[in-house]
Amino acid sequence: MGSWVNSVADNAIGKVEIENFEGIDGPACFEEAVVFRHNHGGMSKERVREVYDMIRGKSRNSCKVEMEKMRNDKDVKVTLFLRTGARSFKNETAVVNVFEEECCKARNCRVKVAKTDKLSFCDQVRLMSETDILVTPHGAQMTNIIFMDKNNSVMEFYPKGWDDMAGIGQYVYKWLSDWAGMRHQGAWRDSQGPPCSDFNDKPLCFTDYKNRQIGDDLAYFSKWARKVITEMKEYKKDVELRESELPVKEMRCQCG
What we know:
- This protein is 43% helix and 12% strand.
- The chain contains 9 helices and 5 strands.
- The chain has helices spanning 2-13, 45-62, 67-72, 92-106, 121-129, 162-165, 172-180, 202-210, 218-244, and strands at residues 76-82, 109-115, 133-137, 153-158, 183-189.
- Strands 2-1-3-4-5 form a 5-stranded parallel β-sheet, sandwiched between helices.
């Protein structure tokens, strides 16, 4: 995660020295520290959106993402950004098939499957820049939603137990979607599987649930996918209509 943060900072504001804690064995102390969890201090919502627009635009420029070419492609593009190991889908093939089937029924819709551990920073920027609908388990890879165009959609999936054990931090990507201007389309939470071996030992239970795989409800996934794909098709048609009425100089920029 540290290298990702460093890449974002380098692209957005220039070279930044980030503490990597090398050579530190034990607790680290700071004379001063600023921590944001679910707010941005005194920044207005409009100003927060401007910051994410800047990060998105500069990262796309640095990675040479051809946004005009992508936007000329009017298909709905669905990306399944999948994990390996903890919080991966138990039946990945079945989940992929559901989205491929619904995309096929909708027409003018394509599905791409990518693994979170096989992409460089710029690969991730390009992938998110061409994504209209992101389908992904809860996890650090979701920070990449900031590179999606505003008003694009996010579908999030949790393993069993997250509701009880993860605390308020489990909503961080819902907040991030709002900060960056995406549409968080809700979350599906797995309710199946054995309980934690000792529910009174919360750290143990949290680790247990955190490392589990995610099951499925294919009928629900199908209905959910159909709804989100339909909404995205309607949104893209509306954008196309509005942009056809704009002078060229007012067309959208790299920042989305």
